[in-house]
Specification:
It contains 13 helices and 10 strands. With 334 residues, the protein is an alpha/beta fold. Keywords: Exonuclease, Hydrolase, Nuclease.
Length: 334
């Protein structure tokens, strides 16, 4: 059996993907975890402020990494650990985006990586109300004890990938992907001077505009739905939102129209109300996936759960998960 890969998880200091402050890695050989590694790091210079929202999520502060090496110093160790493995991550577009953007702003080269996303694969393997990492980890028999500790998240992701392979009787990662009809992702090599990713271009534009993005009270009190833009037909089909039908409820850190625009940019269709076409509901107002167990739901979320009870396949996403998926700079103070 050659069910081999490396699972990774990054934590970031702020809303820019390149602001890596922690990484966990879990190496799998023959369907078993054989080695793990983790590092704290300072994000690349100029992108190393710690947003209170991120600190609240993972508990890592600027003081905690003050004596740690920067991303550029840690990356050779990351690259050596991964080697030529396929990278597996939960929302892999984000984690591979962290590597790309951090390399770009650090002006460093990096190799190409093949990758697989356990968000996408878990949708083909489990029937869950939410495909956030804690829900899927529990379904896979590898429950998380300390979510957002990078090495624990990487270990959970590895366990999920192992369980998905078991469910489908896969002997290799490529065989699993082929059997499920899922196309693997490919993050191309980067060298300074290559075109920048959109995340990095947006972050540089934001910095050059000399300041924080203001809040928008006109939509914070009563979100306006706006228009539903056409999905981008040229978006990466391996993105976890590609081909999804997304509806929003509650206040996010961005306006409803901006949320719809970002969803459409990665290939999702959007709508203003829940129907049987809906495949994902994004819930704002600080909602987290664990609130599904506690009952803190909007009327749209309750409607989704009723539809699920009648056989519909709709997942519920917290705003943090959505913003991580679509990228971009978060408005300050929201």
């Amino acid at each position: 059996m050659s069910y081999d890969f490396t699972a990774i998880d990054f934590e970031t200091a702020n809303g820019f993907r390149g602001s890596a402050c922690s990484i966990g890695l879990s190496r799998v050989r023959g369907g078993l975890i054989v080695e793990e590694a983790s590092w704290l790091m300072r994000p690349p210079a100029g992108y190393d402020h710690f947003d209170p929202r991120n600190v609240q999520i993972h508990g890592i502060t600027a003081d905690r990494v003050a004596d740690a090496p920067r991303f550029g110093e840690v990356f050779p160790r990351i690259a050596d650990f991964v080697g030529r493995d396929t990278i597996v991550a939960h929302n892999a577009a984000f984690d591979l985006g962290v590597i790309r953007s951090a390399l770009e702003v650090s002006e460093l080269s990096g190799p190409a990586y093949d990758y697989a996303c356990t968000v996408i694969l878990s949708r083909r393997s489990y029937q869950l109300a939410s495909y956030s990492l804690p829900f899927v980890a529990e379904a896979a028999g590898v429950p998380l004890r300390n979510h957002h500790d990078a090495v624990e998240d990487a270990r959970a992701c590895a366990g999920i990938m192992i369980d998905i392979g078991r469910i489908h009787g896969a002997a290799t990662v490529d065989g699993l992907m082929d059997g499920l009809g899922v196309r693997g992702g490919r993050a191309e090599a980067y060298a300074p001077g290559d075109p920048l990713s959109k995340a990095t271009s947006d972050a540089r534009n934001w910095r050059s505009s000399a300041g924080e993005v203001p809040r928008q009270p006109d939509w914070a009190v009563w979100p306006q739905e706006g228009v539903d833009p056409a999905p981008n037909p040229d978006a990466d089909s391996t993105h976890p939102l590609f081909g999804q039908n997304v509806v929003f409820t509650g206040n996010l850190g961005i306006s409803r129209q901006e949320a719809k625009n970002r969803a459409a940019a990665v290939g999702a269709a959007t709508a203003s109300r829940v129907t049987r076409k809906t495949s994902a509901l994004v819930v704002g107002d600080g909602f987290t996936a664990s609130d599904l167990r506690g009952g803190r739901l909007t009327s749209k979320a309750k409607h989704v759960l009723r539809l699920r009870d009648n056989g519909a396949s709709i997942e519920v996403l917290a705003e943090g998960e959505f913003l991580q998926m679509v990228g971009g700079i978060w408005p300050a103070g929201s």
